[in-house]
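User: Hello, can you help with two protein structures?

Assistant: Certainly.
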Amino acid sequence: MLDTSIRAPDPMDIALGAAVRIRRRTIGLSQEALADQCGVSFQQIQKYENGANRISFSRLVQIARALKCRVTDLMDVLDGPDRETTTDLDMLTRMRTPGALELLVAYERLAPESRSSLVGLLRSLTGAGGAGRSKATAASA
């Protein structure tokens, strides 16, 4: 019999949680403030954002209102052609990496030449030369 207590979160739940987190942080709302507006604990918001707990539709409506957006704004990434959806889910999963959002905000503020230099430095540090990741890196992701 399958033990459901150790089941990994569904990629769709992770992607929706990541979309909530990105929107929340973009508008400068804390987990505590979002939790207060939705009538749940901040730990529950953490679980939603990590994909550990599924978000019910009624709770998603509350979250969207608190985030001053439409439900569809949070779900857009989940409703596309298979290839596009896979790419978007991958991007949202990567945005869960600690510091990723802060790094992206700082990156956007850089001049184009500095961006290019930074990307070159990061590729040299990670051994990911060329335009994409190596097959070994992609396989381990």
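That covers the first. Now for the second protein you mentioned:
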Amino acid sequence: MDEHLDELLARARESVGLDAHIGFVVDEVSGERVTGTLTITSDHHQPFGIVHGGTYCALAESAASVSAFCWLQETGIGGTAVGVNNSTDFLRSVSDGVISVSTSPIHRGRRQQLWQVDMTDEQGRLVAQSRVRMANIEL
């Protein structure tokens, strides 16, 4: 594996940029699944004291992007993946606690990928679910 690719894979396992800003911590990383957590604070709330929907969208985009990128590297296809659609359903309101995030592949092909992202509360209840479509592109 070349040095540049090693650097990209290490970066995929870190919380940087928006992930670091919102506090998304990645626990497990692979082309099969990404898991992580977000501890809810008032910074994640919309004006009525519950988690802002954009928080869930951002978590889904980040987790799916890392999953898609890792799968491309693990299969030898290479390149990276960028989000082209993010459809997130908000199922249960949350004001505090820890949100767990996990990805699972729905479709992985030469040109695109589709990932499901489940977000659950501390009781294991589904609070939001996303489908994120990724376009595979050359680096």
